[in-house]
Amino acid sequence: MTPIERAARALCQMQGQTQDDADWQACLPQVRAVLDAIHEPSDYMKEAGAGVTRYISPDSDERAYAQDAANVWRFMLDAMKKQVP
């Protein structure tokens, strides 16, 4: 099960709907809208991710680390959106 399907099923459950195929697939537009809305990471998220990328290329500056982290976030969300069931 993909993250998008899990999100759609959770949304259905939250709305009191069943999680059968017709119901959760009807929730896909809302899930996609949320993913589009969170596509850009916040500065705080970039800094948190920069802590990880700092170990990959220790010779870069702080802005480069934050940008690398933001790019990873965007690429992961884009990949998730392509995995739509």
Characterization of this structure:
With 85 residues, the chain is mainly α. It is built from five helices and no strands. The protein folds into two domains: 1-37, no CATH class; 39-85. The chain has helices at 3-14, 21-26, 28-37, 43-53, 62-82. Helix 1 (3-14) packs across helix 3 (28-37) and helix 4 crosses helix 5 (62-82). The longest helix is centred in the C-terminal third of the chain and has 21 residues, at 62-82. The radius of gyration is 16 Å and the shape is elongated. The model has no long low-confidence stretch (mean pLDDT 84).
Report the end-to-end length measured between terminal Cα atoms.
8 Å
Number of domains: 2
Task: Estimate the strand proportion.
Answer: under 5%
Kindly report the average pLDDT value. 84
Shape: elongated
Sheet with the most strands?
none
Q: Could you state the order of secondary-structure elements as H and E?
A: HHHHH
Number of strands: 0
Any low-confidence stretches, pLDDT <50, length ≥5? Answer: none
Please give the radius of gyration in angstroms.
16 Å
Summarize the model shown:
With 85 residues, this protein is mainly α. It is 71% helix and 0% strand.
Features:
single chain, 85 residues, mainly alpha, 2 domains, 5 helices, 0% strand, TipAS antibiotic-recognition domain-containing protein
What is the topology?
Layout (H helix, E strand, L loop, with lengths): L2 H12 L6 H6 L1 H10 L5 H11 L8 H21 L3
Helix pairs in contact: 1-3, 4-5
